From TrEMBL:
This is PPM-type phosphatase domain-containing protein. InterPro entries: Bact_Sigma-Reg, GAF, GAF-like_dom_sf, PPM-type-like_dom_sf, PPM-type_phosphatase-like_dom. Signal peptide: none annotated. Gene3D superfamilies: 3.30.450.40, PPM-type phosphatase domain (3.60.40.10). It holds the Pfam family SpoIIE. The keyword DNA-binding does not apply. SUPFAM superfamilies: GAF domain-like.
Length: 553
């Protein structure tokens, strides 16, 4: 199974059940490169996926099967790689049949979607396990003494390099009784191959002037920071005179303090230097040096964590952008959308939107919110959107019928997440100047219509919305209809646009209605720009997704 990952056995069993149930195969394969005690079938599939670094499909009777499969009496296999956020193959997910089988496009699409979802959940599990291990380590070290605890607390909440620089100065002064503390880093701590220059990460308070003067240092033996990076060993000078006796090339015009320590930063390899200076001469005991080394270790972890958060944000943003659809170009409709992730989270979540042109010529637009604000929620969101897109394109059912099928599929596949959804169908123009809309609402906000005359209002149903997805797959789904004048703009939105902490949602809906009315007459793209400027701040607490549908003639 997924060795050393929390809750990993449940993850494997869940995905194996989904594969076996949906594809009706005798054996599903979900394993990672870390898995131990695998049976021969799992090992064979894992080896093929690792060798190809891509999908492995055989069994149509025309392509000769791999000899390793023949030896195991495997006649058909379809497997996809599981990947970590960097794209590295970390496992395999697929199915095996002992009889020849032609895998349909739907079969392969299902396996690919499940592999993507499983990869996302693995990334979430790994990230959570890493965070838990770091927190446990910090807690164990913190119990050693009051000082070590203070060091840990001083750096535990940092998220950026500026945060770390400020915390180092404060911890050094308050806990170690230093005059100043600062860090110098290579251009990137994640790639120590760039060893040309060290750069001072300036404390926003700007206290240590001499550090700012010597902010950019070559990685040579001509300065203490460069020497520490090259040797990987700390330097301790009892006095400034002892340091200045070395042939260092430094600007000493604003030099302060006496005793100074330069500690390497890095976990495995050096990517920077921690510098501490005391006003007077210090007798650094063994315990004191252990405390300094602990601070250096904490700073190293904080730097790597800050870079990891930046990298994770980039990966999450890229993932979210990749999962959001390209809206179709449709005659008599103008479609545009906006998505802004929550500022304080992974910048990825379960908000989504989509638009599908059906065989009949109508256009189905939809927006939803899967519970959660993490990569796992985004993975489920991708599954929900993909399934609903397939139902919309491949079936002639009404919005309520398609959403009912989606709810049943989620239940059948064991996807245990709640999700709200608004699904609207816009019929083609009929020459009357009115556009017929039909929609179904699964626990979501109703659509808002901005009419050409400047009025704006929700298309509400006196009976209220239907049940959210993921609660009862047998619950009734109802279609609603309305005629809307051409020239109107239909807005579908998620809760982040209208909900505020400590405020009734009615106030948020009223604010949206008033803002939409103020921007009436604008094209959908300009309308959304205006709404986001008015309603969505830079520090939004929740994800925001809005889909605008201009009902042109």
């Amino acid at each position: 199974m997924l060795h050393a990952l929390p809750a990993s056995e449940d993850l494997v069993l869940r995905y194996e059940r989904m594969l076996e149930r949906y594809l009706e195969v005798p054996l599903a394969v979900v394993c990672t490169t870390e898995s131990t005690g695998l049976d021969p079938e799992h090992e064979a599939v894992m080896a093929l996926v690792r060798a190809s670094d891509g999908p492995v499909v055989s069994g149509d009777g025309e392509t000769p099967p791999d000899p390793s499969l023949v030896a195991l009496e495997i006649a058909a296999v379809a497997a996809w790689p599981l990947r970590d956020p960097s794209g590295r193959t970390i496992g395999a997910l697929g199915v095996i049949d002992h009889e020849p089988r032609y895998w349909t496009g739907e079969d392969l699409g299902t396996i690919a979607d499940l592999a993507e979802g499983c990869s996302g959940e693995m990334a979430h599990l790994r990230g959570r396990a890493d965070a838990e291990r770091q927190a446990q380590r910090a807690q164990e070290l913190g119990r050693r003494s009051r000082v070590l605890l203070a060091l840990s607390e001083g750096l535990s909440s940092t998220r950026t390099l500026d945060d770390i620089a400020f915390a180092v100065e404060r911890v050094a002064v308050d806990q170690l009784e230093c005059l100043h503390g600062a860090i110098w880093l290579l251009r990137t701590a994640r790639d120590a191959s760039d060893t040309d220059r060290l750069h001072h990460v300036c404390d926003p308070s700007g206290g240590w002037v001499s550090a700012a003067i010597n902010a950019d240092l070559p990685v040579t033996m001509g300065n203490p920071a460069g020497e520490v990076v090259l040797t990987g060993r700390s330097l301790v000078f009892a006095t400034r005179a002892e340091q200045n006796a070395r042939p260092y090339d430094l600007d000493l015009s604003r030099q302060v303090g006496e005793t100074r320590v330069f500690m390497p930063l890095g976990l495995g390899r050096t990517f920077g230097v921690l510098a501490l200076v005391w006003e007077g001469q210090q007798d650094l005991s063994a315990e004191h040096r252990v405390t300094i080394a602990t601070l250096a270790s904490y700073v190293s972890q904080a730097v790597q964590r800050a870079e990891l958060l930046e990298e994770r944000e980039l990966v999450s943003t890229t993932l979210q952008a990749a999962m959001l659809p390209r809206l179709p170009q449709v005659s008599a409709l103008e479609l545009t959308a906006r998505y802004r992730p929550a500022a304080a989270r992974d910048r990825v979540g379960g908000d989504w939107y989509d638009a599908v042109v059906t065989h009949s010529g109508s256009t189905d637009v939809m927006i939803g919110d899967v519970s959660g604000h993490d990569i796992a929620a985004a993975a489920v969101m991708g599954e929900v959107r993909s399934m609903l897109r397939a139902f919309s394109f491949g079936h002639d059912g009404s919005p309520a019928s398609n959403v009912a099928q989606l709810d049943q599929a989620l239940d059948s596949f064991g996807i245990d997440r709640f999700a709200s959804l608004l699904y609207v169908r816009a019929e083609q123009p009929d020459g009357t100047g009115q556009r017929r809309l039909s929609w179904t609402n699964a626990g979501h906000f109703p659509p808002l219509v901005v009419r050409p005359d400047g009025s704006a209002g929700l298309l509400e149903d006196p009976m209220g919305a239907d049940l959210v997805l993921g609660v009862d797959a047998t619950s009734e789904r109802r279609d609603r209809t309305a005629l809307v004048p051409e020239g109107s703009v239909l807005l579908l939105f998620t809760d982040g646009l209208v909900e505020r902490r400590g405020e009734c949602v009615t106030a948020g809906l009223r604010r949206l209605r008033d803002a939409a009315a103020e921007h009436h007459g604008k094209a959908p793209d300009a309308l959304l720009d205006g709404l986001f400027a008015d309603l969505v701040g830079e520090g939004n607490e929740d994800d925001v997704a809005v889909l605008a549908v201009g009902l042109t003639a």
